[in-house]
Amino acid sequence: MVNEGFYEIIYRRRDVRAQFSGEPVDPEVLGRVLAAANAAPSVGMSQPWDFILVEETGVRFAFAEHVEQERIAFANLLEGERLATFERIKIEGIMDSSLGIVVTYDSRRGAPAVLGRNTIDDAGLYSVCLAIENLWLAATCEGMGVGWVSFYKESYLSELIGLPEHVRPIAWLCFGPVTHLEETPDLERLGWQGRRSLDNRVFYNRYGLREGLDRWGLGS
């Protein structure tokens, strides 16, 4: 039986920036969301993630200032219509959201012989991304919003929250209740990039080859 509710959550999930209400987070909701993240699969069952909850205003403000400087640096690479489009886009909700969640990657977790990571070292990093996606879908199910902040230097964030040298910050996630979730993702709605369809993105046996896909109902 198809679980339509699950697919609805996938398509309803949004990268939230401007829709945070700032209302308190229910501890039980946060616990369920983090438990869902922690249930993600990981290479060699290493579970190389940790979650740092950031509430302190000073830390959040310092990070927001750093992110703004990085936003300006990126804007300086743009010109004309592309710059005008970018200036309309809000890139973060650090101070607007109720909570910051920093998700980290500890490459030493399960080392030195992590089953399944001996030939693809990045498999550990992929595991953390799976935990983040679990967190995001669970948050959407709970009516919470999540926004992934990516305009920062890892070294700055690591020092700001006191990470050991071997632990990487993979994501600062803005988290909390929202007024609503947009029907259309911000970057698409504001004209930065449209969503690409599945057409011409599925190949058969070799990259670039589509002949034979019709047996899967995907065209040729």
Write the layout of secondary structure elements.
Layout: H1 4-12, H2 27-38, E1 49-54, H3 57-75, H4 80-87, E2 99-106, H5 123-141, E3 144-149, H6 154-160, E4 167-177, H7 186-189
Antiparallel strand pairs: 1-2, 2-4, 3-4
Helix pairs in contact: 2-5
Notes on the protein architecture:
The protein is α+β, with helices and mostly antiparallel strands and 220 residues long. It folds into 2 domains: 4-189, NADH Oxidase; 196-220, no CATH class. Helix content is 35%, strand content 14%. It is built from 7 helices and 4 strands. The longest helix has 19 residues, at 57-75. It is globular. The two termini are 29 Å apart.
Query: What is the overall number of helices?
Result: 7
Work out the radius of gyration.
Answer: 19 Å
What number of structural domains do the residues give?
Answer: 2
Oligomeric category:
single chain
Q: Tally of extended strands?
A: 4
User: What number is the mean pLDDT?
Assistant: 95
Helix content class: 25-40%
Placed side by side, the strands forming the largest sheet appear as: 1-2-4-3
Corresponding CATH superfamily of the largest domain: NADH Oxidase
Q: Do you know the CATH topology of the largest domain?
A: NADH Oxidase
Major sheet, described briefly? 4 strands, antiparallel
Name of the top-level CATH class of the largest domain: Alpha Beta
